[in-house]
Predict the 3D structure of the following.
Amino acid sequence: MARLWDKGIPLDERILRFTAGEDHRLDARLVPYDVRASIAHARMLETRGLLSAENCAAICAGLEALAAGHAAGEWAIELDDEDVHGALERRLIEKIGAAGGRVHLGRSRNDQVLAALRLYLKDAVGGIAQITARVVDSLAALADKQGQIRLPGYTHMQPAMPSSVALWARGFAAELADDRAGLLAAVRRADLNPLGSAAGYGALGLDLDREHTRVALGFAAVQEPVTAVQLSRGKAEASVIFELALLVGDLGRLASDLILFYTDEYAFVSLPDEMTTGSSIMPQKRNPDVFELVRSAPATIQGALMESLAITAKLTSGYHRDLQRLKAPLFRSIDLAEDCAAIMAHALRGVQFRAENIELGDELYAAERANELVVKEGLPFRDAYRKIAAALAKKK
Amino acid sequence: MARLWDKGIPLDERILRFTAGEDHRLDARLVPYDVRASIAHARMLETRGLLSAENCAAICAGLEALAAGHAAGEWAIELDDEDVHGALERRLIEKIGAAGGRVHLGRSRNDQVLAALRLYLKDAVGGIAQITARVVDSLAALADKQGQIRLPGYTHMQPAMPSSVALWARGFAAELADDRAGLLAAVRRADLNPLGSAAGYGALGLDLDREHTRVALGFAAVQEPVTAVQLSRGKAEASVIFELALLVGDLGRLASDLILFYTDEYAFVSLPDEMTTGSSIMPQKRNPDVFELVRSAPATIQGALMESLAITAKLTSGYHRDLQRLKAPLFRSIDLAEDCAAIMAHALRGVQFRAENIELGDELYAAERANELVVKEGLPFRDAYRKIAAALAKKK
Amino acid sequence: MARLWDKGIPLDERILRFTAGEDHRLDARLVPYDVRASIAHARMLETRGLLSAENCAAICAGLEALAAGHAAGEWAIELDDEDVHGALERRLIEKIGAAGGRVHLGRSRNDQVLAALRLYLKDAVGGIAQITARVVDSLAALADKQGQIRLPGYTHMQPAMPSSVALWARGFAAELADDRAGLLAAVRRADLNPLGSAAGYGALGLDLDREHTRVALGFAAVQEPVTAVQLSRGKAEASVIFELALLVGDLGRLASDLILFYTDEYAFVSLPDEMTTGSSIMPQKRNPDVFELVRSAPATIQGALMESLAITAKLTSGYHRDLQRLKAPLFRSIDLAEDCAAIMAHALRGVQFRAENIELGDELYAAERANELVVKEGLPFRDAYRKIAAALAKKK
Amino acid sequence: MARLWDKGIPLDERILRFTAGEDHRLDARLVPYDVRASIAHARMLETRGLLSAENCAAICAGLEALAAGHAAGEWAIELDDEDVHGALERRLIEKIGAAGGRVHLGRSRNDQVLAALRLYLKDAVGGIAQITARVVDSLAALADKQGQIRLPGYTHMQPAMPSSVALWARGFAAELADDRAGLLAAVRRADLNPLGSAAGYGALGLDLDREHTRVALGFAAVQEPVTAVQLSRGKAEASVIFELALLVGDLGRLASDLILFYTDEYAFVSLPDEMTTGSSIMPQKRNPDVFELVRSAPATIQGALMESLAITAKLTSGYHRDLQRLKAPLFRSIDLAEDCAAIMAHALRGVQFRAENIELGDELYAAERANELVVKEGLPFRDAYRKIAAALAKKK
């Protein structure tokens, strides 16, 4: 796209480009969800006698055809459409005539975009939850295969107690399962039907059936009162991004461990060649780029979290165009989390612990032996410890 | 405190000051929780035969006396204690002799601090949830008292549709109730018993009963495996801070509305004198400082959220001293959220809408009338709207 | 792009996609800069006798042809190229044969990417500085045209003192000029020649002339020692993003003022129709979407700032692949700042203050009159003020 | 302090506590600066004939006595004073009578707090710059003492090229010197005289001499126009916090290296006992807590940076009470940066590299030898590299 400050573009064209922003690109993923929500709205209008059966059928068929065409790559949202809603509205009217405009009765873009976004959000979260389960599976497989290999348990990055590959892998698996649970719970804020709130103050003069669209779209509840709908914008988005920050945060820490274990000095793990990357000037090198990129991925999601919280901060109530900016950090976070979890689910299957390089010094067992002495001889822990430590010192 | 770079302080003293940081001040609030957790641990040790009944009784009585003394202001944590755990350990041994040291069997500061923190977190969240319910009540009272007053419903800060004080107040009440629900749900990550995980690899050589302390302390589950305990550090904290960011975010937007409504140009609300602040050079002025400070409070909590996420980012697994830094942003967020919610619960009771200053233009009803026309005459919405708009234009 | 978790993609292909990330798209803007830096490097190699005159000429001509072809849209970086460097290297060798590989002597992608990025950064900052100067000009034009119109000077959003359109516009102009100065100063960290540092430890065994490339590329200094080069990565980026956050922050506050002044209740300004946006269901409305999108733009840049700082945090020294992630937040910030400044420079020309709607109450002059009384009669300020205030009260 | 929601506190007392916030504690450090600025203002008033010589002398002497008393611990700012300005005003009037009030002519708390803050900021930055220079010195001393020890130069945490302690230490020294330069440059935004702007619209009716106070206080320029003064609030603060984030970010990365080098697996460095911390249950351990706390310190400063940027975001022009919140993140960042730099300056003197544990494999020299081959035999780099690599492979 020519940048906005290029000469010779008339003002209203500049304004259109600036206000449309990236929506025509970002909204591609919303097409099927906007279609679903519009169909649910049309059918509700029909049950209320606000849309003829004929018009309703034409609208639904038209929208389904548009969704199929979009999925098949036959059309894309254009800058002049501004967004997914404009794109579908224009094309529907081209396709079925003026009746295509009747689906907008009792609806505003404000509730329309929320309906599509929330349906998308529920799907996207479900998808990432599935991929996260695969990371958990990969860790469990590693624990099953190599779990008996002993590892030093570190505190302060210093060897502290005996641990094992099983304990290591299962610790991460537990946290990733927790992340998955958090992510699924975060859907709560997206699981409310916004339809019927129109621009944020309801569809006055029309007797819409908000429960009807709720059931059709599978939302847990109708969002009430109508003024809460726009006020809540950003909270569902931020909740999901936050949980993604924890998920990718845990993946990043897992990556940190693996990068450390893969150093020459530790050499606790090997990685298959197809998972590492060569150097342009040092061909002997095999670098763990995959894990480095996962390690730094939380930075991007933390940034997106700040971005989403800052967008709505201090805004007075009611819809503001500012809210449009919420989509970019949300989609950026979802895509990145998805990619990181997917690549880790696979990459973990290539990790091999090298038992031959992992040594646990006697001192790691000192606390355990002191504990045993306490149990057997009833010594206070610190006395028992002193005795063990002295024995260790003598052996050296 | 003399700053660290003052001359003449020996190195180890400087290191102590630097590493202890603010803990001796921050930890004051943890005293009762650390005492509760220590008593639970002592009683579990007794049931396992790892502590004599006599020692256990002395330890429990001693700890309870210390908690009472601390609450009564008889002692405070000192810099040399380093933290709450050091302070209690030293004083307990001074009080009941060497037996005081026996409570540390099978425990490390790593699981001890987590136990105290999580008990505190559950309490603190419960407290803020209660105060939030009071804000909801204040909004409901406002809706009851002045709800019938009509307000313009704004989009883009432009009058759009008719609304009312009831719709306005209940929209915020709904979101604050949602924030409260989110906050209570966030406790999930703090509701796990860390005791028995010791430094992060379990208390090898001892047969501890983690279920016993779980029941005694009211945790929902024992956290498994032991390696997950330290790995999870920061996630419960960040989850609570995140929900506080949403809560205070909504309070901040409520404050933004009130500041706007209190301007001379809107003059939609009046505030009692005792809620506003005078100016040092313009005595006629009555400023809404309370609401301004609430409006900017989310900034502090968003900063604390970033801080808490950044502390654990990229850390390898196992305990690191870095984790100590999590307390400051957590406590800062909790105190601020508590203060903001408490002041809003009160301040809202002073807000009076001034019906005489609030006008709704005819054009706000245009959409409603167009909707009615659609229903009665079956016109497409846009045709109906054009008709209404033309009629409005004539009247002007 | 098919998402990474699609079935049926072999592991190494997934790894390539994941590690290449968005680079093939992001790097498009770096093509001319990488070409410039490569040509400078080639010529330096020639002066050192490390590249024949013939090879050097072929390399330079080939690179220039590639840059021209890229600018003309004849080719684009492909996923398989991984990044701009891979794309140019492959195409250069295709074009001029094996000699194309000789330009990489004494160079690594680590210093190569930095050279291109820094050259780009200097250019981009210069461009935004120019656009910012145009915003300043628009404000000055507004002050010239309507500056004499009086405005209430607000504190706490309450009328406090007399002000004017000139004071209002010139206050913002001064801050934007300050932002521009800050931005130009931030270039300092990008103004260092990284070439010759190779992978971060110098080009051992070669006698490169770092001063030669410095002069050719217009860097202020050679960055020394070589180990500082990779350690500094991210600091120049963050410095520029920070200054953009201040710049766009000021634009956002300017937008906030204009949105407020454009409300029905203030009605201090009018905006031309081509700058406002209509509503899908309330055609009477003209919304200031442009300013709303500028108001929330700082959120995106603040997020990018956090992202960039978090990427390098805690990394040990030496190059890490994590650093690749710095490009996205940098480019996102630059593009957004550019767009916001450009649109504001234009939009401000459409702003008309409506003197007829702006009233300044007598109480705004109270402080001034009290000051005059102090001067004339030598009263203490507070006594003078009381006298004025009493007189004002009587008049009412 | 009793929390705000304690029962039985009357509303106006609650409001006072909430609005005063932490100011009475935070402002302690501003006492000497507020005194200096007030004295400069008083003297300017005298030169303009707005204050008698007698009053001026009494005010200046009184303020100096108050500053001395505060430094000696004789008094502290109390909650009822609200802030440093209230505390000094009340005490000055108690001390010298009503004349104490005359210093406020032509001044508002809005310009008063900025004058004190900027003077403080300039001092604080100067102090941290000095301490940073000491860290640079410590690194230089290390390079002098042990610089000849060879180190592997890492990329991707994999050994890549030969490096040395000198190159390692001097790389960090260069970046810290750059941080110091950035910090000193950031003072620019604090180096403007706000006095005379009063509440933000000037002292109408008085002919103040802003140049007089500028010279007296050593500001680089008078800030013009008066409306820019409050608009600029937060930018100087954020600029300093940003530079501190870079400084502490570099210290944190230095700490990361040292923690890694101090692991058992690397064992590249030893640390003196008085710099490490023992474990409560594993007495054999000596943990590098100091470096861990420095590693995570950037998190706190990044959070403070977000906080400071978010406070002013979207605010309309003119003073708002929100700005009060800027002090806490600023002071928090300054204190932490000061402590981190001071402790690193000292701790680095205890770091000993253990040459006996550091090995550089032959493969680290491959690139160098290939380079030499290129020079001697004119081979293309990749061919030379292949030859060297083959020779290396044979040796193994």
Observations:
- The two ends of chain B are 71 Å apart (CA to CA).
- The first strand of chain B starts at residue 150 and ends at 155.
